[in-house]
Write a structure and sequence with these properties.
The chain is α+β, with helices and mostly antiparallel strands and 156 residues long. It has three helices and six strands. It has a single domain (7-142), classed as Elongation Factor Tu (Ef-tu), domain 3. A hairpin with an 8-residue loop joins strand 4 and strand 5 (77-83). The structure holds adenosine-5'-diphosphate (ADP) and magnesium ion. One of its GO terms (molecular function) is ATP binding.
């Protein structure tokens, strides 16, 4: 999984499958199918971490899942970012910029909702710890996150 990292990506936030991530307290900003298709086809599914920024806002820690997309009968992937920050409002339609810096674990099935939620909480804690290490922290300051001022960035 590390071969493709760090991986930089920018794209519009679209509506997901309404699986109720937000109700679990872990909303995930979904990338469009077009952006997902631009990922290396051999990047493993699983849970990753890195840095994320909405529009030209602040850069925050994030956890990301690359999974099989139920909407396409699990033949296509989905990429969903949970930003470790509390936002005042939703940001559908905005441009999300991310850099994926590390891998946590493969996709798993859970016996209960509680087990799923605690696994995600552990992923978040692991991401927070890893991202404080110099090799990951340095990417927070990457020029990728500094969009040219006054320039409208669309569809990439
Ligand atoms: P959907 O199925 O449409 O993706 P979710 O329940 O996963 O719905 O919620 C995702 C949406 O929540 C994002 O598109 C974004 O607009 C909003 N949101 C608010 N806070 C966050 C956050 N911390 N991380 C990711 N998305 C967030
Ligand atoms: Mg989502």
């Amino acid at each position: 999984a590390m071969r493709h990292l760090p991986y930089f990506c920018r794209g519009e936030v679209v509506k997901g499958f309404g699986r109720g991530s937000k109700e679990l307290g872990i909303p995930t900003a979904n990338f469009s199918e077009q952006v997902v298709e631009s990922f290396p086809s051999d990047i493993p599914t699983g849970i990753y971490y890195g840095w994320a920024c909405v529009g030209n806002g602040d850069v925050h820690k994030m956890v990301l899942s690359i999974g099989w997309n139920p909407f396409y009968k699990n033949i296509k992937k989905s990429v969903e970012t949970h930003i470790i920050h509390t936002f005042k409002e939703d940001f559908y339609g905005e441009i999300l910029s991310i850099v994926i810096t590390g891998y946590i674990r493969p996709e798993k099935n859970f016996d209960s909702l509680d087990a799923l939620i605690s696994a995600i909480q552990e992923d978040i804690e692991e991401a927070k710890r890893q991202l404080d290490l110099p090799e990951h922290l340095k990417l927070k300051e990457d020029n990728f996150f500094h969009l040219p001022e006054g320039k409208i960035v669309n569809n990439h």
